[in-house]
Amino acid sequence: MITLKLLLQVAFRNLFKSWVNLIIGGVIFFATFLVVTGGALLDSIDSSMSRSIIGSIAGHLQVYSDKSKEELALFGAMGGETDIAALDSFAPIKAALEKHPNVQTVVPMGTSGALITSGNTVDLTLARLRALYRKNTAEGETAERRGQIDSLKQHVRQLAELLQSELATRRELIREDQVDPADAAALERARSEAFWADFDKDPLGSLEFLENQLAPQVADGDLLYIRYVGTDLASFQKTFDRMQIVDGEAVPPGKRGMLLSKFFYEEFLKLKSARRMDLIKEARDMNKKTIALDPLLQRYVKETSTQTREIVFQLDPIKTKQATARLQDILKSQETDLSRLLSSFLTVNDENFDLRYKQFYEQLVPLLDLYRIKLGDKLTITAFSRTGYVQSVSVPIYGTYQFSGLEKSPLAGAVNLMDLVSFRELYGYLTEEAKAEIAQLKQKSGAAEVKREDAEEALFGEESSPTLVAEATPGLINDDEQVSANTAALRSEDMLKRVYSQKELEDGMVLSAAIILKDPEELNATLAELARTQELKDLKLRVVSWQQAVGIIGQFVLMMKMVLWGVIVILFVVVLAIINNAVMMATLQRVREVGTMRAIGAQRSFILSMILLETVVLGLAFGGLGAGAGSALISWLGNVGIPAGTEELYFFFSGPRLLPTLGANNLITAFALVVGVSLFSTLYPAFLATRVSPVTAMQTDE
Hints:
alpha+beta, 4 domains, 59% helix, 32 helices
């Protein structure tokens, strides 16, 4: 004990005695600071990202078919959609999983994607016009509907005039032979008085001409990729408590319907000029950016002021006059061209932006359709089914939703929610209605079911079944009788009104299922236990953690940790070399001192312990300072937060700011590494010091 006390006194005496010790201490300080702060930040990101993934779509665990050719990737794989085998029924999967004492909830899921079109301005206007004519046919014409029809017809005529103006401009810029004569002829007809004078004689035929010949010339419609998750919407909302309805309402339990992500709705379905104005405002208000200094905001301003076509095309003649008058009043201008007025109005700067933003929403937006698809509209989604044929489903949009804290995240915002029945139909599984329709058609036609292996014999054999031979029947087919008798109860509207039971939802196919645990701390143990369960093996199920279920995104933090530890390994190799050389220099400077101590009776073990203990004290002192500085920085960042500079970081930060925390493991790891490397790098110089001869050391010159 006395020896240890003496060694500590010597170690503390020599702590700041040599400039070499200060160099070693500085290296130890920096290394400890890096390990503490880097480890704490990555652990915090890992924790935040896990909250984002678990709380938004994945749950703690996921199960899917063991027959799948690829691994599950809920947010999509690098090459697109993954090839996941379907599970024919969710009910036995749920029953098997809920037997485990740590399983709280099991939610059915299926992810897929499709291309949709939001339609261009002419398409949308003509669709409204067609709906009004059909309503007149079904219910009789009213004065109100006649007024709406006349207004829409005037709008279409104005659109034809605008297209003619654009065509004239194009002719000035390109050769005449590059202009499609068919487009020019269609425009001439759509602008002619004769066409509109005869419009009401055959309104549906006239609309068909406009849809086929005029609408394709307006290229302002968007072809969008929509990613959707089919699920039990009621169960999903109860299970994932971060989910909140923003606009509209939740899809009623058991009904067909869809909830669009608020991010997707704003980013892709909103009027582009309005969206860019929103982005400028968010950047100025939240990130304190300025138009004068930020190139991205300058680009938004330029695009908004030059791309006024989508606004001009939306306005009918009456609204065009209203918008022109309002802009003339705001700008104190006598200009009558709406495009020029809009361009001048939307050329904003830091001084007038807030006022122009307010005026845009107060004066112009009420005259416009702010969104291509409105809540309550039916969205038609066309996708390739599992067998490769094209399948379409029309689902009503009940509202928009978002995950709390992930409002700006493109990853979380890319997921739209669809009812399970519609998802199964798109995927290619027959609904009960489709099965009933096929059964009715079979019964009515008298068709016989033939096995694949017997098909050739049945069709071409000598004793072929008479039910396989069709005879031509003279006369016309009675469409009303054939169609209405079989499909009256199966019309789209009827299916949308139907309420599906919980049993119907759970008995059908799914692609995967999310598992929410009662105790998330037991995730790894529960995963291992479920993987060993014979019942799940019999069901051919594969159980994976949330990190595996989300594909490459789940490995992001692991890759970042590997990078950090790679840097730390390189750093500590350098640190080892620096400390080794520095201690070697310090030892050589103390050869006379060591020799004197040996001459008066100090053993080699004492000299070795002295040098090693000095290194330990040096490591603890400067390592403590580095750990303290790192802890102070993490504590400060934990209070103020690290802002998510990009929308992608919202997902990894689980919100607009990352609030890092420091764990005891970060400090323990830092001290263990620093002290271990310091001792290891000191062993050789200390060993050399013990080999110094007392006589040789005392004869050494100063």
